[in-house]
Amino acid sequence: MQYGRSRSTDTLQDVEQLLTRLTRAEKAQVLQWIVRDLAHAFPGIDITPDVSGGEARIVRTRIPVWVLVQARRLGASEADVLRSYPTLRAEDLTNAWAYARVHSGEIEQQILENETA
Questions:
Q1: How far apart are CA 115 and CA 37, in angstroms?
Q2: Both 25 and 69 in a single domain?
Q3: What is the pLDDT of residues 78-115, one digit of tens each?
Q4: pTM: predicted TM-score of the whole model, two decimal places
Q5: Is residue 2 part of a domain?
C-alpha cells in the first residue's frame, strides 16, 4: 500500500479494475448482489459485535435502538429524547424508528432481556 492511501481505496480500485473486465450480464448480476445486500441496510444504524453488546445502535454513539424505542413507549417525546441524548439528531431518531419497524421482534427481545436483567 502506498503512503497516504487507505486499504479501502485500494480495494475500490481493485473492484473497478475487475468490473471493467466483466460483461454487461455479469455486471448486472453483481449489481443484483449489491442491491440484495443493501436491501436490509439502515443508514445511521450500526451493528458491531464488540460495541453495545452487538445490538443495533446509532452510529457515532453507543446508544442502542431498543433504548430509544423503550423511551418512546414510556412516554418520552422525540424532543425529550433529544434533550436526554444531546449527541443525537432528529435524523438519528428517524433511522431508529425505521429500523425498529422492520426488526420489531429483535427490539422486543432486547427490551425484554434488559427489563429482566
A1: 33
A2: no
A3: 999 999 999 999 999 999 999 999 999 999 999 999 99
A4: 0.68
A5: no
